Amino acid sequence: INCKILFLLHLKYSMMYRMDRYAAAGGNFFDTADVYGLGQSERVLGNWLVRQGKRDAFVIATKARIRTDMH
User: Fold this and answer.
1) In the chain, is it the N or the C terminus that has fewer CB atoms within a 10 Å radius of its CB?
2) At how many degrees (to 10) do helices 12-24 and 40-52 cross?
3) Interval 23-68: pLDDT, tens
4) Higher-confidence residue: 50 or 3?
5) Burial class (CB in 10 A: 0-12, 13-18, 19+), 21
6) Annotated active-site positions, please?
7) Cα 58–Cα 14–Cα 51 angle in degrees, nearest 5
8) What is the C-alpha separation between 18 and 34, in angstroms, rounded?
């Protein structure tokens, strides 16, 4: 599930509800990045994972960016 799409829903609880439904249906892969929602996507996902109490059951893909304006 792409966390950028989840963040576009704007509401933390809506995101958590959708993640709950996704996990209940057997989903275990989350794709996120620090630029999705200015970091909110990763924060909400992290909070959700803590609430689940079974972090090892999920696969998290994230990205890093490299500054190109080094001046």
Assistant:
1) C
2) 50
3) 999 999 999 887 777 777 888 899 999 999 988 999 999 877 776 7
4) 50
5) exposed
6) 36
7) 40
8) 20
Give the global pTM.
0.70
How many other β-carbons are positioned within 10 Å of the β-carbon of residue 39?
A: 13
| Contact predicate 44/16, CB 8 Å | yes
In sign, the C-alpha dihedral spanning 35, 40, 41, 47 is positive
Encoding tokens for residue 25?
Answer: 């249906």
- The reported pLDDT for the residue numbered 7 is 60
Q: What is the spatial distance between Cα 36 and Cα 1, in angstroms, rounded to a whole number? A: 13
